[in-house]
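LAB NOTEBOOK - FOLDING QUEUE
OPERATOR: T.R.
BATCH SIZE: 2
PURPOSE: Compare the predicted structure-token outputs for two unrelated chains run back to back under identical settings.
PRIORITY: normal
REVIEWER: second-year student, initials M.K.

ITEM 1
FIELD SEQUENCE / FIELD STRUCTURE:
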Amino acid sequence: MSTLTDRYVWGVLRAVPVAQRADLEPEIRALVADAMEARAGDGTDPATAERAALVELGDPDLLASRYTDRTLYLIGPRWFPEWR
């Protein structure tokens, strides 16, 4: 894996509670590797496959929120009626 993957994994892990990071890191790296392998089977060079895999996985904060069941919103339910 390259520095780009390392930075992506770090981006996911920084948004996850410390207690979950050790278990989650290998899973995120496996997701990236699987997506890269799928693209490499098409004859894509490794650097392009890696970049495409990371783009496909999307925003690291959104991926982290899926693993932690954390809702991301700017205005919470408590304040929405007043904002509206």
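ITEM 2
FIELD SEQUENCE / FIELD STRUCTURE:
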Amino acid sequence: NYINANYFFNYISYSLLSVIILGMGALMIVFNNRDLKLRNGCSPLTATNINLQFVMANLVFTFASWAMMVLLCLIIDFKNGFSLNTLCFILNSLIFAFCSASISYLIGNLVKGQNALPAICNVVALGLSFISGAFVPQELLGASVLKIASFTPNYWYVKANNAIAGLTKFDYAHLKPVLSDMLIVVCFAATFFAVALAIGKKRRYA
């Protein structure tokens, strides 16, 4: 029975998104400070090198945040911790963690003040979690709400979790819907990251 694991991994979509937005957003606001950017521009490091180091640091923070939450799940539900269903849950949550990082990277490039960050975090993380089915099961949400939610990565992440919870066979035919949902989340991540890069390049020395 993977109902408890299903609920846990649905709920961490909120936790992951909140932690990563607040953590990365705070770093992005400091990193995007005009004086700091001008100083970095005078350094012997190329802009590509600086950006690569910053992206890698954010990815390490994302991975560490995700790993702590997954470890908590494995401690609570050790008996089922290494089943194929749980491994699928973990893979799905890892993909969502990096999607959360791309959303946070975009928000960090848009927000200029530290005071606005917590408010934006609450609106984005709570709003997406409520309409996607993380807090309320998707089957209890209205068709119009689900239609709107389908334009968010959280919806597809939760949808994949719900499908994983019911898996009893792990051949391609049964895994195909789950993999499709995961691929959609990857596409969301790539889109958010591309938009964030475009905005960051436009505001490089603004």
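REVIEWER COMMENT (ITEM 2): The mean pLDDT is 86.
FOLLOW-UP: none requested
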